């Protein structure tokens, strides 16, 4: 499902690589936790896996596609078909209701709009009565579930969640992870979540750990 080899990433102007992953692999349906302090490159790694950033050095393969070989437009289509991304900043559109925010996933990947699928996901996530609510009418946890439904819409093989438990109390942390895991398992997808939070490791004991270190620190 995922193979990473000798991956480094350096943003323009930086003197040392901000990300360094010698080797990592994940089988289909296996789950992983990317853990490291703030600034260690967790978001950068998830953006590379999602083909939002282009790898400069090293290799990332997702379901037998080498990310570096994708041209930008092809990358957008490929991402839409294979990757579900739950960003740390949820990026819901304020003027669109929950259903239409979910349907952006269809639009972005060039697939037919499917309101029934959006509504089924809303129901599965306990938001059946929120289809026409705008983001400002939702709690933070409800907004995160709308963003999760958007990530799930295209039935991705790989679900990426960037710090999904930041700012959650212990009980909400456990239930957020249980929800992500249940949704990934239902699709037979692999789940990769990033965190700086040791509670996540307890809540997802079957997750393979990928530890990142602060840039410049010995690994
Ligand atoms: P994390 O998600 O673990 O907090 P990031 O991947 O966001 O870490 O950032 C890793 C490092 O790269 C940090 O030093 C950060 O300042 C730097 N960085 C992140 N995004 C950019 C960018 N777009 N341009 C330049 N530097 C960046
Ligand atoms: Mg981050």
TrEMBL record:
GO MF annotations, alphabetized: ATP binding
UniProt KW keywords: ATP-binding, Cell membrane, Membrane, Nucleotide-binding
Residue ranges occupied by any ABC transporter domain in the UniProt entry: 2-219
Source domain of life: Bacteria
Transmembrane regions: none
Entry annotated with the keyword ATP-binding: yes
Protein name: ABC transporter ATP-binding protein
Annotated source species: Herminiimonas glaciei
Highest classification ranks of the organism: Bacteria, Pseudomonadati, Pseudomonadota, Betaproteobacteria, Burkholderiales
